[in-house]
Each structure stands twice: as C-alpha cells, then as structure tokens.
C-alpha cells in the first residue's frame, strides 16, 4: 500500500542550490539558497568568512566620541561613467563621516535584491564595494540581504551605515560659522549629476562627463592637518541639491548670509554647455567627490594650499564669504547681487 506524501512535500523547492544564474525569491528565504548566496557570492567578495558570522559585529573598544552616518542608494543606472552603486555607497557614507571630523572605522551593508537580477551584476557591485572599502582602509563588518519580487526594486538597492571616531578637538558644525569667514570649494561642480543623466537617457554628450565619485579622505586629512580645529568652522559634501542646497542649509543653520562670487564658482566647460542646452542650473547638480569648507579668514591661504596639494582637490578655490544677515546671494562681475536659487523639487531624481 502506498502511503501519502508528507504534508510539507508540496512546499519544498527542488531548485538546485548553486546552479542558478540570477536572484530568486528563495535567495531571501533564509534557507539553503540564502546560505549559498551568502557563502558563494557575498562573503568572499567582502573578504569575510561564514565562520565569522554572528548576529552582530563586535568592534574593538576605542576612546573618544563617535560619529554614525547612514544612507540609502537607489541610483539608476547601476553603473555609470566614473562609478557605480557599490563605490557610490562606500564613498558617500565615508564622506559623510569625514564631514563630521571623524575617521571611518567600519561599514555595514544592506542589500535589497530584485528577483531576476543576474548574479554577475550583483558580483560586480560587491567587487566594487570591496575595492572602494579597501581604498578607504575599512571593511564591511555586518550586513543583511532581502529579496523582493520582479519589478519592485529596479535591480538592486543598497543601504550603508558607517561608524567613525571623531578626531579629538574637531567638531565642525554650522554653529561655529562667523561673519568674515571664507567659503572654499574643493573642485569643479555638477559632473556627477550630469554624468548620471547622460548615461540614463543616452543623451550622447561628449567630453569629461564622468562622475566625480571619490572618497574625500586625502583632502580632508590635509585640511585638518593644516588648519587649527577652531579655524575649521564646518565642512559639507556637495551631494543632492548641489552647491545651492548646501549653502542655503548651512547659512540657515548658522543664522548668517553668504555672499558668493559667481565668476569664482568652478564649473567645467562641458558641464556648463550641457546645462545651458538642457536648461539646468549647474549649481543645483549633485557631486559625489566635492565638499565645501568654511574657514576663518586668517587660515584661508593655508587651507587652500593644503587642498591644492591633493590630487582630488587641486582645483580648490574661494567662492565667497560670510556676512551678517540671512540667505545666499550671487554677485556677478558687475557687482550686482541676486538671490541664489534653491531648488524646490527633484531636478534629477535617483542620482545617488
């Protein structure tokens, strides 16, 4: 007599664990395929081993204050001239820590994967995360993976959190800004946002339209070595909303006004030409490897010399000064002043 099959037989997945070329829902189910994805694809590319895993990473004790930054990354396309979502996640998180005067110590990574994502795409992204982390001298110490249905994640999304130790004595913040301070920017603006748009829409613009996606470790460390902590008022990386958003945010938080010399703002010719054709404002375009620093007037020369001595900030310039009042204004070559526009919407969605 034949016995009835177990009640759970219909729930078992006969799919081979390893011979799968794309993400399946089972990869997020916590079973054998989840473990296979972790051990065969994710951990080796991040320099980790399954035997090291636990529910939480334990870090060695260090004295002092700590900084924490977290960000989600939904950029489209996943790969673009000058970078990809993996390096963007690492550098974006590391740069946020650096702006707080912190030395990055560790990262965590959360993966949201769409069913049907080719494994080779995931592998490329993870390789990029590993390479970018090594460049910054840190590691991914914890993470998580979830899988959603087809059409629900546009390939993959990343969320990254960074932990850093604040350099003793440094606490850059808008509250330290004073009238008379100088406003510096580390290099040309707008390339990242335009590079994403050019790649996404296949616009065909030529010239140097690669993203400036990069870590800011070298210029920030050089600046902090050249300037006393009290003279380095605030730093902020120029990301979503571009230079305009960053300046407006800091001016509002400081309760002061910023006067910006329009002709001093560095925008490369290809970016300026493309923006003119598309009707975009380059001052509202995102960067991913540029930052502004507000410093006391007496250390302006030392700060600029330090920045210009670094490869990624050789084009650093002073773009303005802080005065009493409120808001941000642009001064043209004739000395006429007008308010700097602050974008009210999402000019270029999904650029990070």
TrEMBL record:
InterPro entries: HypE, PurM-like_C_dom, PurM-like_C_sf, PurM-like_N, PurM-like_N_sf. SUPFAM superfamilies: PurM C-terminal domain-like, PurM N-terminal domain-like. It comes from the Bacteria. Residues 54-166 form the PurM-like N-terminal domain. GO terms for biological process: protein maturation. Pfam families: AIRS, AIRS_C. Residues 178-327 form the PurM-like C-terminal domain. Gene3D superfamilies: PurM-like C-terminal domain, PurM-like, N-terminal domain. Belongs to the HypE family. PANTHER family: CARBAMOYL DEHYDRATASE HYPE (PTHR30303:SF0), HYDROGENASE ISOENZYMES FORMATION PROTEIN HYPE (PTHR30303). This is Hydrogenase expression/formation protein HypE. The gene is hypE.
């Amino acid at each position: 007599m034949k016995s009835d099959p177990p009640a759970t037989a219909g729930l078992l997945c006969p799919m081979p664990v390893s011979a799968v070329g794309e993400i399946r829902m089972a990869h997020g189910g916590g079973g054998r395929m989840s473990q296979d994805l972790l051990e065969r694809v994710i951990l080796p590319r991040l320099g980790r081993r399954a035997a090291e895993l636990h529910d939480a990473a334990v870090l060695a004790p260090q004295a002092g204050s700590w900084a924490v930054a977290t960000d989600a990354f939904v950029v489209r396309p996943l790969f673009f001239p000058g970078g990809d979502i993996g390096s963007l996640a690492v550098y974006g998180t590391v740069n946020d820590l650096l702006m707080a005067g912190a030395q990055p110590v560790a990262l965590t990574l959360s993966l949201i994967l769409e069913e049907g994502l080719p494994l080779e795409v995931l592998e490329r992204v993870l390789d990029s995360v590993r390479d970018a982390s090594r460049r910054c001298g840190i590691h991914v110490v914890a993470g998580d993976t979830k899988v959603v249905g087809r059409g629900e994640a546009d390939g993959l999304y990343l969320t990254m959190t960074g932990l850093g130790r604040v350099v003793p004595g440094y606490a850059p913040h808008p509250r330290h800004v004073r009238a008379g301070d100088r406003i510096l920017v580390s290099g040309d603006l707008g390339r990242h946002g335009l590079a994403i748009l050019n790649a996404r829409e296949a616009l065909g613009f030529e010239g140097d339209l690669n993203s400036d996606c990069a870590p800011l470790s070298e210029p920030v460390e050089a600046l902090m070595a050249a300037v006393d902590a009290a003279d380095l008022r605030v730093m902020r990386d120029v990301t979503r909303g571009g230079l305009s958003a960053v300046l407006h945010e800091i001016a509002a938080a400081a309760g002061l006004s910023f006067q910006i010399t329009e002709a001093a703002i560095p925008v490369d010719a290809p970016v300026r030409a493309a923006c003119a054709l598309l009707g975009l404002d380059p001052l509202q375009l995102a960067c991913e490897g540029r930052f502004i620093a507000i410093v006391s007037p007496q250390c302006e020369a030392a700060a600029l010399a330090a920045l210009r001595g670094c490869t990624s900030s050789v084009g650093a310039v002073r773009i303005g000064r802080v005065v009493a009042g409120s808001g941000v204004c642009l001064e043209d070559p004739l000395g006429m002043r007008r308010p700097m526009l602050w974008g009210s919407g999402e000019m270029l969605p999904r650029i990070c």
